[in-house]
Amino acid sequence: MIVWLVLIGIVAYFIVRQSVSGITRASVWVLWLVMMAPALIWTAWTLANGPGQPVPPWLALPPFIACPLIYVWLVQQGRSARPQQPTNGDLESPISVLADPSSPAEALALAQALGSAKISPRLLDRTEEASLQDCFPWSVFYLSSVEHRPQAALCYGQLRAEPALAYRTVCDKIRQKFSDRFLVIFQEGQNGKPFFALVPNPQRTPLGQALSKEPPLWKQVVWSVGLLGLSLLSMTLMGAEMLRNPKLDLVRDWAFIQSGAPYAIGLLLVLGAHELGHYWAAKRHRVSVSLPLFIPIPALLGTLGAFTPLRSPMPHRRAMFDVGFWGAIGGLLVALPLLVWGLAHSTVVNPLPGSGLLNWRSIDPSYSIALTLISKATLGAALTPGKAIALHPIALAGYIGLWLGAFHLLPLGSLDGGRIVRAMLGTQGAMLVGHITRFAVLALALARSEFLALALLVFFLPAISQPALDDVTPLDDRRDGLGFLALALLVLVVLPAPRLLLSWLS
Q1: What is the pLDDT of residues 332-369, one digit of tens each?
Q2: Does the pLDDT of residue 74 top 60, yes or no?
Q3: pTM of this prediction?
Q4: How far apart are CA 38 and CA 328, in angstroms?
Q5: Are 15 and 31 contacting, i.e. CB atoms less than 8 angstroms apart?
Q6: DSSP characters over 247-271
Q7: What angle do CA 335, 12, 299 make, to 5 degrees?
Q8: Under DSSP, is residue 295 helix (H, G, I), strand (E, B) or coil?
Q9: Residues 74, 77, 79, 81: is their CA dihedral positive or negative?
Q10: What is the pLDDT of residue 84?
């Protein structure tokens, strides 16, 4: 529990620092402490009362609700303390220092993320603004006004064509008029009406010199292969530790190391398939992306997972959906066969003290609908009600891969599920689903203490991901169907098997 708290605290600090950098004068450490307060309170309760005693609702809900409100209030207080007019030095700051909080936040947030080294107080001069009217044909998007911000020009008007056609037409016109000087963002405002935002192209310096999209391939390969090797080593050691035989010694007996290899290779295949799904989908939509990077850690599972750095924004919702969907599904397509094969070589045992989701020597499959169905289909009559499963190393890798896939499918922030839901439902729908997800995970944590660390983690994740450049054009029906299928899979993994299903299977 302490290890998870430290890791969540480190991740939370970087999330808070990145989120508020330049938009408020409130202390990052104070904001971090406010966001960590629920985690500290819940961890103190668990340490005082034992992991078997769930956090009571009267201690779980008030911090979960109050701390985000206090966080927002502190951020707003820090914003109101900022000077209203920028000085000369401020013109070198990120856009978020100068942007009005009432502006379309996501377009400006993306502008900040894409921001170039210097900021001009006005992107377009009078002549350029007059010529901008020619970039918006009245039959496609009737331009009524242009609002200037330090690093963005917001173009408001009336959409008169299909969103995809409008975005393609305006982009072509902007490119003809201004070359590659701007990126064009197409979003829905809070009033539901779409608008265009022009932001500086990050691949050009103020002098118009091209910037490199990504590091040289050889550097990517060195980092990727090096971290892959370290992750394989750390996962092998942690797998051997989890499968430890008291008669074997780490230093003197090579069999100790060999015992962790099947687990390490299996989990590495799951993580690799997940990241290759991201990489393939990003390349398919011409999103600039680097090779996947693994994160070794000599504790817990032996790894904190892997990630594929995206170096350019998503061009449209289709790309956002595909990158999220094929990453999550790629990992699950490898995890499920490993789980099935491993379960066939696992042992049905009587439940041990502490049997549940996290005790691999005594896994209770009834805690997950999907695991219940897979276990019963694999083990058949040998698995009776009240029995548990001692997992084979390959089954352990598939089991962890199943839960990692479910975590990535949570519809929050830049998780795969967050990208999927944002692409399906748009900004407002994704925001609503994100808030509902937080409370749903908290409810699971109140029912099962194993979900407490997950509830702490999702507390720090943003509700929605960054927008695509064309964030208005909706998905096709096929992708909508695949998205609902992915969310249904998430529900099957995280919800416990109902008694009716257990009685029917028995």
Answers
A1: 999 999 999 999 998 888 887 767 777 788 888 888 89
A2: yes
A3: 0.76
A4: 29
A5: no
A6: T--TTT-HHHHHTTHHHHHHHHHHH
A7: 50
A8: strand
A9: negative
A10: 43
Count other C-beta atoms under 10 Å from residue 203's C-beta.
Answer: 17
- Out of 154-163, 200-209, 259-268, 282-291, which region has the weakest mean confidence (pLDDT)? 200-209
> Given 3.30.1360, 3.10.450, 2.30.30, 3.40.50, which CATH number is that of 102-200?
3.30.1360
325 to 83, 138, 305: CA distances (angstroms) = 43, 37, 17
Could you tell me the strand order of the sheet in which 194-200 lies? 141-149, 152-159, 194-200, 182-188
Nearest to 180 by CA among 167, 197, 199: 199
Q: Given pLDDT bands bounded at 50, 70 and 90, which one contains residue 381?
A: confident
Among 282, 281, 308, 280, smallest CA distance to 294 is for: 308
CA distance linking residue 394 with residue 72, whole number of Å: 45
Domain boundaries, the chain: 2-80, 102-200, 217-505
Beta-carbon contacts of residue 280 (< 8 Å; ≥ 6 apart): 326
- 280-324 pLDDT per residue, tens: 999 999 988 888 888 887 777 888 888 888 888 889 999 999 999
